[in-house]
Write a structure and sequence with these properties.
By secondary structure, the protein is mainly alpha-helical. It has a domain at about 10-85: Multidrug-efflux Transporter Regulator, Chain: A, Domain 2 (Orthogonal Bundle), CATH 1.10.1660. Helix content is about 55%, strand content about 10%. The protein contains 5 helices and 3 strands; from the N terminus they run βααββααα. It has a 3-stranded antiparallel beta sheet. A hairpin with a 3-residue loop joins β2 and β3. The longest helix is centred in the last third of the chain and has 19 residues, at about 95-110. It is extended and about 55 Å long. This is Transcriptional regulator.
């Protein structure tokens, strides 16, 4: 049975979702101060939705983008590598298309294409 969106996750649930061992999540807690799950009796960890989102972001930076822990710390503190929020649903397709074309042009200039 899957939990509702926004429900707290245990360390084992988050570990399974990210496919990383539990000790890695505990290590991340020592290296990323913003990652602070609730701890109940017996040191049981419960990750709030914000903690889950941050853990997903850390995992993405380390495993997908290839950052080192120090690089991921810097990227998170400087706001780099964060996924931009999705556009509101009421944005006209023409506006979205023009924004995407602008981004493509900036990327082309940056790559020298």
């Amino acid at each position: 049975m899957e939990k509702a969106e926004g429900a707290f996750l245990t360390i084992s649930e988050l570990s399974a979702e990210l496919d990383v061992p539990q000790h890695i999540l505990r290590y991340w807690e020592t290296r990323f101060p913003a990652l602070r799950p609730l701890q109940r009796a017996g040191n049981r960890r419960y990750y709030r939705p914000d903690d889950v989102q941050l853990a997903r972001r850390i995992h993405h930076l380390l495993s997908v983008e290839g950052f080192t822990v120090k690089g991921a710390q810097k990227a998170l503190s400087e706001g780099e590598g964060r996924t931009p929020p999705p556009p509101p649903n009421d944005v006209a397709p023409e506006t979205l298309l023009s924004q995407l074309e602008m981004v493509r042009a900036m990327l082309a200039r940056a790559l020298g294409v």
